[in-house]
Amino acid sequence: MNQSLDNKTLKQMDRDHYLHPFSNLTEMKETGSRIIERAEGVYLYDSEGTKTLDGFAGLWCVNIGYGRDELADVAAEQMKQLPYYNSFFGTTNPPAAELAALIKDVTPEGFNHVFFTGSGSESNDTVVRMVRRYWQCQEQPSKKYIIGRHNAYHGSTIAGASLGGMGYMHKQDEGLPMQFVDHIEQPYWFAEGGDLSPEEFGLQRAQKLEEKILELGAENVAAFIGEPLQGAGGVIIPPSTYWPEIQRICNQYDILLVSDEVICGFGRTGQWFGCQHFGYTPDLMSVAKGMTSGYLPMGGVIVGDKVANVLVEKGGDFNHGFTYSGHPASAAVAVANIKIIRDEELVEKAANDTGKYFREQLATFADHPVVGEVRSIGLVAAIELCANKETREFFPNQGDTGSLCRNFALQNGLVLRATADTMLFSPPLTISREEIDELIAITKQSLDFVA
Ligand code: PLP
């Protein structure tokens, strides 16, 4: 759409009428918003003409980079052909059917079905209803509890926020977490590992799941849900001992294992799905973000045979779904996007090519005076800022140094995100070596600035 209003008018309209998500609404009334007008490759352009490298791929989602005409073209074509029709009551549409089969081709063996949603939060809401339906069909209706983790993020709907363990979200809203949801501690070695080695700590934190199952009674527990690595929590990469132990416990107590792949899915970790990186096999995977690279909203729950066969063979009615489940234009965009990820070998690039280069360059910051730890996998990473790297002691007033660092980077041409004092990176998978050099140079200036 060509812009018909001048920027001053738009900023005023925004300030007066737009309530922004996850924002300080009081502050924004004063500060207003920066208008991002267009984007190309890994660069954003705002209404002042400022060019900024997007080191965060929007919100961990623009995996194939901005400005891909192929996606705009398939969306326009599909909107002309069939902009919308529901997939309830015995109908489907060509892109949704093609997408379901294409997803099967890129997922690990044993995943042959998908349920479409409009977002990651809706995917996790679907998980809740689907796992409970599964246990009803298995004549074990008391299996209702879903166990998540503190400091996990699973979305912003009531179910998503409940499964997640973000204290500030629970605090804002009495009644969260909802009934039959519980949490265990997270595998955050840098902050909570104490004197244990990462491997010992990973095992110990996984065993918290066993303790919780025994406390609740295995006959009451439906599933465990976890992100392969906690993204919004601070790119917390669990020690190698963690996931195998979680898998063992789920198997032993007959608990479904759900991998929230909303960030990790579709290449971010250098594998198609994060669970493949960490070597576990979930029963269900929630996805969104990289599924369409954010070009249109879409999510899904990819369902393994164990659950799908029960739902299909003896489940009958599954009373759940969304108006936009299997939306034709979103599905067409997802098909084109997944084909780009496959044909341009972006997963391989994130693992061994530009991803490797990115990780090597970031690792050089480990010796920087304010850096406690650098963690990375594929093309996702964190730099942990701290006051004392030997004792892993954080700065007082957690968040102040991270905000300073993030703001300095932004003023100097790079979008990063800060969770407290952890700097987060998740650039488009298409980023080149030269663009990585630019990202690294601005990061260095930003670290020097807060040192
Ligand atoms: N799950 C994870 C791991 C996420 O990171 C997010 C969003 O950041 C969600 C779920 C929620 O996705 P959405 O914002 O599309 O509802």
Automatic annotation (TrEMBL):
Protein name in the entry: Putrescine--pyruvate aminotransferase
Record PANTHER family: AMINOTRANSFERASE, AMINOTRANSFERASE CLASS-III
InterPro entries per UniProt: Aminotrans_3, Aminotrans_3_PPA_site, PyrdxlP-dep_Trfase, PyrdxlP-dep_Trfase_major, PyrdxlP-dep_Trfase_small
Names of required cofactors: pyridoxal 5'-phosphate
Keywords carried by this UniProt record: Aminotransferase, Pyridoxal phosphate, Transferase
Record-level Gene Ontology MF annotations: transaminase activity
Entries under SUPFAM superfamilies matching the protein: PLP-dependent transferases
